[in-house]
Structure formats: C-alpha cells, structure tokens
Design brief:
Helix content: 25-40%
Radius of gyration: 17 Å
Mean pLDDT: 91
CATH topology: Rossmann fold
CATH superfamily: Flavodoxin domain
Order of helices and strands: HEEHEEHEHEH
Shape: elongated
Low-confidence stretches: none
Structural class: alpha/beta
Bound molecules: flavin mononucleotide
CATH class: Alpha Beta
Strand order of the largest sheet: 1-3-2-4-5-6
Number of helices: 5
Number of domains: 1
Strand content: 15-25%
Largest sheet: 6 strands, mixed
Distance between the termini: 62 Å
Number of strands: 6
Length: 181
C-alpha cells in the first residue's frame, strides 16, 4: 500500500470519527434531566452546556450540577439545544458551559445566548473547557449575558485533559461555592 493510500485512509477515518462525534454531540445537546436534592430545597438551578467533541464540558456540567444538588438546589441539567434550556422561570442560579473552539464558545451556545430572555433577578456563572488559559470564550459568554442585564458572578476556564474534563472535582465545588457566596 502506497503512502498516498495510507494518508487517504487516515483522513477518511478522521472525517468519519469527526462526523460521528458531532452527531453524538447534537443528540446529547438535546438531552435534559432534573436532579432533586434529598433534603430541604434551597433554590432552583439551571446548568446549560454544549457537550463538545471530547465530552469535557459535559462532564464538568455533571460535576457542577451534582455539587449544586448537594447544596440543596433542584437542578435542571440541560443541553444547549434542549427545550428546557431557555426556560428560566423560577431559576435562581444559571450556569452556562461551552467548549472553546477558535477562541469562541460553540455555535449552539452562542445561539442559546442570543435567544435567552432576561428573567430579572438571577445569579449567573460561565465556564469553558479549553486548551489555553486565555479568557476568550468566557468573555464572549459573559458579554452576551451582560448585554441582557444578567451579570456574570463567576467565570472559569478549565484546562483540557487528554480525555475530557479535569478529574479534580474540588475545582467544580469551588466554582459553585463562589457562585452561591
Ligand atoms: C478545532 C478545535 C479548535 C480549538 N480551539 C481552541 C481555542 O481557540 N482556544 C482554546 O483554548 N482551546 C481550543 N481548543 C481546545 C478545546 O477547547 C478543548 O479540547 C476542550 O476540552 C474541548 O471541549 P470538550 O472536551 O467539551 O470537547 C480547540 C479544539 C479543537 C478540536
């Protein structure tokens, strides 16, 4: 087999894997579920995320949602394309997470932010998964929220590990602690 054929197979594999990853991401971004705390309920939180290609943003959303639940919040965990994501009725705390691609949040997150209606009094935080620590995607998300009179209290960019989000869950606990302080 010649070098050109091997290159062709590698490129075809990359394209197939990218399309499959994208299709899984689209499907997951339409998911939503509710987490109910076992004890007294102190408030309602909505965690909206775009799953991303390698799943780091989704994993981080799960950790943040579980931390909010542990602190007594009923949590709606919603993909950016899900019908639940735009429903801010009764929501006290809003978290939005996105992967960083080309120094920007993803298209579904930007569309979500454009369609969001200001709910009045709400505490908001943004986070992104990224390869660099430059505050690019977070700034775009924060500005979009602030243009709708939703001030962003916490903005964090998590470095990327080889297979998804950083494994240190205390990072997400810190994010939630800052948000609720
Ligand atoms: C096509 C592409 C473009 C990227 N662009 C950026 C970028 O501009 N800045 C950055 O910090 N990270 C960038 N990254 C790194 C991703 O943000 C990082 O892999 C992140 O973990 C993706 O989120 P996910 O794990 O949820 O898929 C890029 C990754 C890919 C695949």
């Amino acid at each position: 087999m010649g070098i050109l054929e091997i290159l062709g197979i590698i490129i075809a594999l990359i394209i197939v894997l990218s399309v499959v990853g994208w299709l899984i991401g689209v499907s997951r971004s339409k998911d939503s579920k509710t987490l109910i705390p076992s004890g007294e309920i102190h408030g309602t939180a909505l965690v909206v995320y775009d799953p991303g290609i390698t799943g780091g943003t989704r994993t981080a959303a799960f950790h943040i949602a579980h931390e909010l639940k542990t602190r007594g919040y009923e949590v709606k965990l919603a993909g950016a394309r899900s019908s639940e994501a735009l429903n801010l009725s009764g929501v006290d705390v809003l978290v939005i997470g996105s992967p960083t691609y080309g120094a920007q949040p993803t298209g579904p997150v930007k569309t979500y932010l454009q369609n969001l209606q200001s709910p009045g009094n709400i505490t908001a935080g943004v986070y992104s998964l990224a390869g660099s620590i430059v505050e690019d995607s977070n700034v775009v998300m924060a500005q979009a929220l602030e243009s709708k009179s939703i001030p962003v209290k916490v903005s964090t960019k998590y470095g990327h590990s080889a297979w998804g989000a950083p494994s240190d869950k205390t990072l997400y606990a810190k994010f939630v602690a800052q948000l609720l302080s």
